[in-house]
Amino acid sequence: MTKLAVSIRVKGLVQGVGFRPYVYRQALAAGVKGWVNNDNRGVNILAEGEPEAIALFKAALIQELPPAAHIAELQEECHAVQNFSSFTIIPSRSQSDEITEVSPDIAVCEACLRDMKTQPHRIGYPFINCTNCGPRFTIIRALPYDRHQTTMDVFVMCETCRTEYESVTDRRFHAQPVACNHCGPIYQIHGHEVASSDIAKVVSAWLDEGKIIALKGLGGFHLLCDATNEQAVATLRQRKNREGKPMAVMMASLTEVEKAFELSDAERVALTSWRRPIVLIQNKLALAPSVSNGMHTTGIVLPYMPFHYQLFEHLNTAAIVLTSGNISDEPVVTGNDVASHDLASIADVVVSYNRAIHNRADDSVVMVVAGRERMIRRSRGYVPASLNVALRTEGIFAAGAELVNTFAIGKGSKVLLSQHIGDLKNAETLAFYEESFQRFSSLFRFEPQLAVCDLHPDYLSTTFAGSLGCRLETVQHHHAHLAACMAEHGLDEKVIGIAFDGTGLGTDNTIWGGEFMVCDLSGFERKFHLDPVPLPGGDKVTEEPWRTAVSYLYQYFGRAVFDQPPAFLQGIAVEKQAMILQAIDKKINCPLSSGAGRLFDAVAALTGICTHSSFHAEAPMRLEAAIQHGCRSKYLVETDGSRIVLMKLFYLILKDLRLGVDKGIIAAKFHNTLLSVILSLAKRLRADTGIQKVVLSGGTFQNRYLLLNSLTMLQEQGFAVYAHEKVPSNDGGIALGQMAIAAKRRTEFGA
Ligand code: ZN
Ligand code: ZN
Ligand code: FE
């Protein structure tokens, strides 16, 4: 039979994920000869053999990919037969400016967990890894991805590890962080002399005793304690000065999670994914009450480092709190010295290891709504995987927003979104932003030609973008939100955009955030918006939602409504209330806002569900948690021109409160009202424009009830509805939207 030869070029996430050994094994199994190598653009294969063997090989190639590998593009060409006698892996060399993708960090694999029990030089070795698993982004300094370009460079491989590293048939062939008990990094307990092999045992005993431990993770330190020990959790909260915010929990295994929670299939997939995000899951059984603190979901994550598994082997508890090791709003601590200094006041013991974290990465957070994984915080396990947009993004820097900042850089038609950075108003976080930009620029050989930022002149990301010295574009905040969702779904056309969000500067200099737009990637028309209300005290209202409630009541009903003060004002000094009304009258520090987040705040306060907020978005979260499910009724709103007037809504809520209607019912009716506004205005815009596609974005769509019901309702009415999956609907997705808009404008108007 005549032989065939084909050359195959594979692009995508195919380096640092065990792709070449995988190709090698498939070639051997199919009886194919030739070679595989990689260069800066991806992996190249030359396959030679009988036609059936080639067919078998090609089919196998895409069927059983290594977990983290992803094929974005596969090109194939016929080639002259050269009669190779074997299949070989050829060393890589070539370099160009076209970058390869850098793999995100990968949770330890099953095979490594087994090796940890059986391989003599890796018995109990807590840094075990292979080409299919282990640290990647967090240890990489430069490309190409080779050991000397990572923070593993200080560890010299022993003979055994070197042999595995060089053997093409070994699972550790070219596994850059390969190491063992003889040659790799080790854990240490600060201030305690404990043998390496006993550390997991000692630490787990302390956790079971109720101690708080600071433990170095992949992308930064965590704070740990027994999640079933109320006193331990309360102590951690108190020492961390973190009153209300729910904490994530690591559980021993999927079996343990299933004992405590009801999981959907998609949640099971998300939990066990090699990316190992924290998954927000509906509570069934309570852990210690302080863990989720009245919220109806808990963030659950399964072990992803070998040491986590070792802890659970010894622990009595099946659930430990795993929260970021940081001081209030500062970035999570990565350095051992910083940890022993800063975290010593929170933790009883600091446990670290002697390999440096180069790129900080928090745990990622996702939720599953309508059967799809939805990103809430995109970091470890996802970053720096690229997002593809059908636009030329080369040379564009997108600065992001301010509060839940991420930035993005454009390469070719790809977008590389940074890890979650945080609130830039914090000096340490701003430094992290600048440092990450430098690191992304050098890692991906990026030179900014065009910078794009938020319309808000005072955002520190705006200032930073301006300092780059290249051409600067500005984008309205909610247009960016919607464009992010459009870019994710490859939409480049006019759509109906609904942005429900906390804040964001509008083109009229007021604060927006309850917006119905008709938009495409180049521009938008603001069609409807929530009725603006003064925010007495400006930013202060996010901590004191009662102020916004007062403002709405005053706007619609005047002073009379306070003659018999509604119940939610009981705990608030009369002088303070009077001061607020006066500020509104005199327009002192009372910016106007149409933000949906503020409306949620007001209703949460008015119902007494949350008058004071101890963390970002607490009031809306508590209002959602209060919903009595199954209630179908709603309140009324009217439109006046482009304004969505909320007078009847507030009138009817006050009436329900006077009648003593259950708060759960009021919360449900309020949500249902917004859903009916969404549906009726989408229909009106469809009738006016003929547009069928609706895009949902903005932080408020992290509300499951609102998102799920918006999707269902709009779909039932024949709309094609698009919501976020890969990037957050909160400000963490803004950079992608800015990027898409800037890229589109550049193609339209020229660079
Ligand atoms: Zn492995
Ligand atoms: Zn070794
Ligand atoms: Fe926003």
Characterization of this structure:
The chain is α/β, with parallel strands linked by helices. Among the domains are: about 5-90, Alpha-Beta Plaits; about 100-185, DHBP synthase, CATH 3.90.870; about 200-355, DHBP synthase, CATH 3.90.870; about 530-720, Nucleotidyltransferase, domain 5. Helices cover about 35% and strands about 20% of the residues. The chain contains 22 helices and 30 strands. The strands form five sheets. Strands 6-13-7-8-12-9-11-10-14-15 form a ten-stranded mixed sheet, with helices on both faces. Helix 13 links the parallel strand 20 (about 450-455) and strand 21. It is globular. Bound molecules: zinc ion (2 copies) and fe (iii) ion. Fe (iii) ion (FE) binds near residues 501, 504, 699 and 731.
SSE inventory with pairings:
Blueprint: E1 4-13, H1 19-30, E2 33-39, E3 42-49, H2 51-63, E4 70-78, E5 87-89, H3 110-118, H4 159-166, E6 187-189, H5 199-209, E7 213-216, E8 221-226, H6 230-240, E9 249-251, H7 254-260, H8 265-272, E10 278-282, H9 289-292, E11 297-301, H10 306-314, E12 319-324, H11 336-342, E13 349-353, E14 365-369, E15 372-377, E16 387-388, E17 396-398, E18 408-411, E19 414-417, H12 427-443, E20 450-454, H13 460-467, E21 471-475, H14 477-488, E22 495-500, E23 514-519, E24 524-530, E25 533-534, H15 545-557, H16 574-586, E26 592-593, H17 596-606, H18 618-626, E27 638-640, E28 643-645, H19 647-658, H20 663-689, E29 693-697, H21 704-716, E30 720-722, H22 734-749
Parallel strand pairs: 2-5, 7-13, 9-11, 10-14, 17-20, 20-21, 22-29, 24-28, 29-30
Antiparallel strand pairs: 1-3, 1-4, 2-3, 6-13, 7-8, 8-12, 9-12, 10-11, 14-15, 16-19, 17-18, 18-19, 22-23, 23-24, 25-26, 27-28
Helix pairs in contact: 1-2, 5-10, 14-22, 15-16, 15-17, 17-18, 19-20, 20-21
The structure holds zinc ion (2 copies) and fe (iii) ion.
